[in-house]
Amino acid sequence: MIKEFQRLKEDENNRLKLEWNFQRTLAKVNYHIHTDAIKENLIPSAISKTQAAIIYANEADVLNMALFGKTAKQWRDQNPEKSGNVRDYATLEQLVVLSNMESTYALLIHQGLSQPNRLIHLNQLAITQMTSLVRRRNNLTELRS
Predict the structure, then answer these.
(1) Do residues 29 and 100 touch, judged by C-beta distance below 8 A?
(2) Among 10, 13, 9, 31, residue whose Cα is nearest residue 92
(3) Is 81 helix (H, G, I), strand (E, B) or coil?
(4) For 57-77, what is each residue's pLDDT tens digit?
(5) Global pTM value
(6) Dist CA 105 CA 37 (whole Å)
(7) CB 3.0–4.6 Å: which of 42, 53, 102, 105 could bond 30 by disulfide?
(8) In angstroms, rounded to a whole number, what is the distance separating the alpha carbons of residues 34 and 139?
(9) Could you tell me where the DSSP H helices lie in 42-145?
(10) Would you say which domain of life the source belongs to (predicted)?
C-alpha cells in the first residue's frame, strides 16, 4: 500500500514538472511575440545594440513588475544564491498568466499605450487571472482532501 502511494505521488510530481516545463516553454515562445512588438514599435532604427538592449530590459521589467511586483535586478539582488531569473522560479499559475500577459502586452504596444498605462493594464490582468487560477487550484485541492 505504501509503495503504491509513493508511486502515485511520484507520478503526480512528474506530471506537475511536465506541466511546469510546458508552461515555461510557452512563456519563452510568447516572449518573442512581445519582443517583436517592441522591435517594431519602440526601438528606433538609429540606436546602438546596447541602447536597444536597455529598452528590451525595461519592457521585460514591466511584465515582471505587473506579475511579480519587482524588476529582474531586484529579484537577483534578493536571491543571490539562485541561478537563472525570477521566471525560472515561477509557479505554474504565474507562468500561465505570464504567457497570457506577453501576448496582451504586444497588443498594448501595437495600440500605442504608454508604458505606465501598459503596466496598469497588465497588473490588473495579472491580479484577475492569478485570483482565478489560485481559487481553482484551491478548490481542486479541497476536492482531493
Answers:
(1) no
(2) 13
(3) coil
(4) 999 999 999 999 999 999 999
(5) 0.76
(6) 8
(7) 102
(8) 32
(9) 49-68, 72-78, 92-110, 115-144
(10) Bacteria
